[in-house]
Write a structure and sequence with these properties.
single chain; mainly alpha; about 45% helix; three-stranded antiparallel sheet; about 375 residues; elongated
Length: about 375
């Protein structure tokens, strides 16, 4: 099991990093990846979540019997031979009966079944394929017989398909996925984190807070307490870790849900308020200037220009509404450096400038003439 965070670093500097176990195919779990990925906090189609069937779809699938029959025909793809099984069979039929049939099927056919489900999870087939997947998920998620005891009898591919349908994560069908049968069952029954790069037993660190107790499958080590999603970003300002309870929140989610705002300053001489983060898990607050400083000091030297722009953009979002002296300065400096980086300034130069500023060696004119200070700083 991966440690909750590297020794000596505060929780705000660490998410779930990768090791040899965490090869994720289409995901790069490396530090602040250069690959452009949509933030899970902003993506309604993120596959890294337990699928939630919205109320309208639920009513439609439950009440429109003709439509149910249509989806049943769509996802069955039943072969001519009665000895073959379909995705629909796996989703609705008794575990041991389907398992016996699958042990008699050739590997090529089993791979074809997995490939069919992978295509559905990729979501490239349009609304019809999305509804077919929701239909399968409804069947799986409403079954009371799918327990740790019964799933022990499942065929390996059968179990992989059930876990992939339930979680909506296609990596459970990937050929490099090497979780044990026991681990897959634990993921299915919400006793193990579905994040392949984490895999913590749940509740993580035996946490019994309201969130960890009441949210099925929630992992406090790598999932956002607001959106329940995880990703493989580490050492970034896009995640805020609470120093009090060590739960995590996407910065985008915190801004959207007003968990970031101004509060009484704990530092003398810096104005009446500073930007603070309020953790939804424990309701405690922490100031954000020092957090940004820690992240940049530890991580900025490893970022390239594109990563530095992304991180400065996050900082700019956080401090945009700050009425605190150093918060406004940090906002201006972030905006300035973003433009300079886009204009071709080397990331090493930009990194040195922001680190110098965060270490407190910024322009001292601000306390005397803020407007003049802003003009001077922008021109540097």
């Amino acid at each position: 099991m991966l440690p909750p965070r590297p020794s000596g670093l505060p929780p705000s500097l660490f998410l779930a990093s990768s090791d040899a176990r965490a090869s994720t195919g289409n995901h790069d779990p490396g530090m602040n990846s250069d690959q452009n990925r949509e933030s899970p906090a902003e993506s309604a189609n993120s596959r890294d979540t337990w699928p939630v069937i919205d109320a309208a779809t639920q009513v439609k699938l439950e009440n429109q019997k003709d439509e149910d029959g249509y989806y049943e025909q769509s996802v069955t793809h039943r072969p001519a031979s009665a000895n073959k099984v379909s995705l629909l069979d796996i989703a609705r039929e008794q575990v041991d009966i389907i398992s016996e049939k699958m042990y008699l099927l050739p590997n090529e056919y089993l791979e074809e079944l997995k490939g069919r489900l992978r295509g559905m999870l990729e979501g490239n087939g349009g609304p019809q394929q999305r509804d077919e997947l929701l239909f399968l998920q409804r069947l799986v998620q409403t079954r009371s017989d799918l327990t740790a005891k019964t799933l022990i009898k499942a065929h390996r591919v059968q179990l992989e398909i059930l876990v992939a349908i339930n979680s909506g994560i296609q990596f459970f069908l990937h050929h490099s996925m090497n979780l044990s049968q026991t681990a897959l069952i634990e993921v299915f029954v919400y006793k193990r984190c579905r994040n392949i790069a984490c895999q913590s037993q749940l509740p993580a660190e035996d946490c019994h807070c309201e969130i960890c107790t009441n949210r099925k499958g929630f992992c406090s080590l790598c999932m956002c307490v607001i959106c329940n999603k995880f990703d493989f970003e580490v050492n970034t300002c896009r995640w805020i870790g609470c120093d009090s309870c060590a739960h995590w929140t996407h910065t985008d989610c915190a801004i959207r849900d007003k968990q970031i705002g101004t509060g009484p300053s704990s530092v003398n001489g810096l104005g009446s308020a500073e930007m603070q983060f309020r953790c939804r898990a424990c309701n405690r607050t922490s100031e954000l200037f020092g957090w940004v400083k820690d992240v940049f000091q530890q991580c900025a030297p490893t970022w390239n220009g594109e990563s530095l722009i992304r991180e400065l953009t996050v900082v700019s979002k956080i401090f945009r509404l700050s009425d605190n002296t150093r918060g406004r300065q940090l906002f201006w400096k972030s905006e300035e450096l973003i433009e300079k980086l886009k204009g071709g300034v080397a990331e090493t130069t930009a990194c040195r400038i922001i680190l110098t500023f965060l270490q407190g060696r910024s322009c001292i004119l601000h306390s005397i003439a803020p407007a003049l200070c802003r003009n001077v700083c922008i021109k540097r």
